[in-house]
Amino acid sequence: MAQPPTTPIRTIAIVGATGQLGKHITSALLKNPTFTITALTRGTSTSSFPSGVKPFSVDYSTPSTLTAALTGIDALIITLAVSAPPDTQSKLIHAAASAGVPWILPNEYGNDTNDAASDETGMGPPKRAARKLIEDLGVSSWIGVASGFWYEYSLSGPGLFGIDIAKRSVLLFDDGRQKVSVSTWAQVGRAVARLLALPVHAQAGDGPAKEETATLNEYRNRMVYVQSFSVSQRDMLDSLNRVLKLEDADWTITGIGAKQRFDEARGMLKEGNRMGFAYMLYTRYFFPGEDAALFEKRGRLENERLGLSGEDLDEATRKAVEMAEEGYFAKLSYAR
């Protein structure tokens, strides 16, 4: 088993620095002048990076290039697109071990991948396998960031939360009042930056505040739960009405049991419809009474200790409306 690192994090490598989530993490990291940031990029990539980020070209078929990129790095942040080859993360984890990287933030940034719901959606096993690989290699420690669904992305995606903004339609799961934890992309970025800025150990002489002072070591090899807010479908619809200056009568509102929709979505997936997976994934966390994605109810929320305040629901909803009106989701390759 890896020994707990002792020095604070200063050098950070990020995979997916210009991606949907990665660019928000990168932006938050850049606000901390103590960090030196390297972005791993494929040789064929045409991405441009913000000032302060050093690109390092790698070839995933040549492990030595990954090891070279990660040599001298304190923390590796992995954010991967759903289209990434399945072995991408394991290659990065092996390279991090070869380079002696003390900390890895694996590709999590969603719901809790330790519970039964994650097994039923198929998300849990590969996530746990990646974390186990880190531990088995015995060099790095990991911290998994669980942030719930990405709010503005999910609300703008037609039907993911059962709401289609463009069509003014709502499909309520059961009574529509099951809450889930959600985060904006910016909040996830802040959470990662705050986490990596923590001291490794509590400082001597901290006194009564010692227990309230979060440290990296206490989060070592475990999940960290954060959110922007917790919402139900009803909360989202109310927010949309405020932002769009509408009323319920302006929407076509229907209902279905969450478990029924989950089964129907699974059927869609078996027939080759990729959106079936998305509907299955989202609906599973709205099963009534389970609170499967409600972090605050489960006593797991770390917002206060990381200095993360809540966000304004209507502002985040306004962003989702803008994305929906721009057809953001339809432009994604996996949504077609």
TrEMBL record:
GO MF, one annotated term: oxidoreductase activity
Span of domain NmrA-like: 10-140
Keyword NADP: yes
Top-rank taxon: Eukaryota
Keywords attached to this entry: NADP, Oxidoreductase
Coiled coil: none
Pfam family, one: NmrA
UniProt name for this protein: CipA protein
